[in-house]
Amino acid sequence: MKKPATLILFISALWITGCSNDTTMSENPFYSESTLPFEAPDFNTIENRHFMPAFERGMEEQLNEIDSIATQESEPTFENTIVAMELSGDLLTRVQRVFFNLTSAHTNEEIQNIQSELAPKLAAHSDNIYLNRELFNRVETLYHNVDELNLDDESEKLLTDTYRDFVRAGAQLTEEQQSRMRQINERISSLTTEFQEKLLQLTRERAVVVDDESMLEGLSRDRIASAKEAAEQSGHEDSYLINISNTTRHPLLSSLSNREMRQQLWEVSAYRGLGQDGGIDTRPIVLELVELRAERAKLLGYDTFAHFALEPQTGESPERVLELLRDLIPPVISNSDVEAQLIREYMIQDGIEDDLRPWDWEYYAEKVRQERYDIDDSVVREYFELDKVLNDGVFYAMERLFGITFEERSDLPVYHEDVRVWNVMDEDGSQIGLFYGDFFSRDSKRGGAWMNSFVVQSHLKEKKPVVVNVLNITPPAEGEPALVSFSNVTTLFHEMGHAVHGLFSDVTYPSLAGTSVPRDFVEFPSTFQEDWAILPEVLENYAVHYETGERIPQDLLDKLIAAREFNQGFDTYEYLGATVVDMEWHLLNPSMIPSDVEAFEQASLAKYNLANPAIPPRYKSTYFSHIFSGGYSANYYAYIWSEILAADAFAFMQNQGGLTRENGDRFRDYILSRGGSDEAMDLYRDYRGGEPDVEHLLERRGLN
Ligand SMILES: [Zn+2]
Question: Is 75 exposed, middle or buried (0-12, 13-18, 19+ CB in 10 A)?
Answer without folding.
Answer: exposed
